[in-house]
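Reply to dn_fold:

You asked what the input looked like. This is it:
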Amino acid sequence: MVVPWKHGTRRITGHPLKKIARAVSLVLLTVWSCTAEAAGTPSSPKQVSALVVRWPEASTIVEAAGNGGNSGSDTAASNSDAEKPGASAAFEAVEAFVARQPTRSQLLKALKHPQSHGLESLAVPPVLQCESYPSIRLYDEYDARKASGKEGLVDLGNLHDVAAEFGLFVSKHRVQQELRHKKMLQLKSHRRLGVGVVQWNTFMMRPSAVDLLWALMDGVAEHKATPVDRLDVLVFLLHETPHFKTKTDKRRMLKNVQHVVNVLSTEHSWGAAHMKSLKNTGGTGLRFGRLNTQSIIWISRFRQGDLSSPHVNYVCLAQHAVNGREKGFIAAVLHFTHVGKLAFVGVHLPGWESQAFRSVIAHLVEACGNKHKGLDSFDGVFIGGDWNEHLNTDALLALYSTVESSSGQTFRSGNGERGADVRVSVKLHATRLFLGLLFVVPEAAPQNRVAKALTEAMLEGPERVSRVYMPLLWAVDRFGRMPRISKQHPTTKREEPVVAVLRDMDFDQATACYKGGWTYKYTPEHLPKAEAAHPFLRMTPCIHKKVLLETRGVGFLDRSAMRMSKAAGADGWPEKAAFIVVAKQVFVHGTDHSQQFTALDILYRF
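and this is what came back:
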């Protein structure tokens, strides 16, 4: 099927002289890298913010500073699978195997016994299933005050306040989403479009078709499920990904993606996959002129002759590279028959800078929307990416004070929704959280003590995290609670919270998988614990010491947020609604970001 593309992409290079200057800078940077490598010593970091690292094919220049707080990018080259001996050959072996178009049984056998298929390096990564309906309602201070009955709230409040607000914006929200979703599915007036989104900062690793689809292969070999059957469209939002060496390699990978999703499906109706990459002139990695970049891939079903099923008949592309570099966004607005325009936006942002997000929206609307309608130009907007939104320092400080004064306190929260009784009980004096605050190294700042204690708490396992620690994790999550901070906990730099900007733009929900752990800086010389049962526990030996010593050490960086059209029918039900029904995290060793998979149900009036 041929899909018309509207090239709404902004010119990112600006004036021709700027374009020439950047090209000259790129050449000089490459020459410098070769000279420095020959000399064996890099230039002063004050003069050139880069390090030369040995790759198997060529030298690589990797940005070592000034990366806007990007987790792990200071070790990107040394830590990436791309530089390991045989990594390129392993990638080629997997792609060549899939290019031979194996059957479903052959593919699953190869995953189970890779050695017998010449795929010795192919290791199935651990996959974690998140909670049911794994979304949170974006924080609204007005609703929080209304629910509490208080005119004004100061700081974090006590633990009862945390629990009560967690019940409102997380527990109750999830119960309401489940009930509303099931009710709308029963309505004969609405139909369902299944959407799967894979978001991943690959950390300079070139992913194969198999790497991109781990979440959909989870459980298939054991005949537990066929998750791809409930999907009609798949979108991949990739960051810090190397460019393909040749167009042939790119075409082969896209064909492989199409083949794998078809053999995994009961109905072989997936059409061709399409891919576009950000036109950046700088990045966090360089290999003889081939920069790393952001990319978006999309593939959808096409049921020939079935006019009642939605299919993509129009695509608009938008992108913007901040200062010409890899940070920025790339988006595809897919126009579905019967459904309308759904914008899928992949972002890699500096973090703690709400203006960067506002810029994304402005460029998206300019390229593919109507400036008078703004985001209402689209029936739905899904933004996923590496936001670099680390834990909230003010909230960590407030939680530290709260824990010190409430060491023996137990708190509960219940939502009472339709008889559901969701309770959260925390006995801080009996948990590793409080012990971590007591016995952490004395020189560590209070906020880092809390980060260390919460990291230790996660080691107790996903079920205990879900049952006990989720309110505390939500309280320090920059996408979660937005504390009203007093002068008691001032910050050095005041920034408008990104969650407040999202609310202003009518985004109402975001993904949250707290039991899956968070993103942290990565120590490349360590290997994961093969015997650990929980994926986050497997990766904890790789946590860098900086995690507990700096403000931007850890956080729930990889997130997605959604907004839908507010139009409603005469029956009171919305014309279109989105529900985050499934989420998984794939822990691929060699990257410091877990791969995020989100399954959405878009319900639309037909």
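Residues 9-16, 24-85, 408-431, 485-493 have pLDDT under 50 and may be disordered.
Hope that clears it up.
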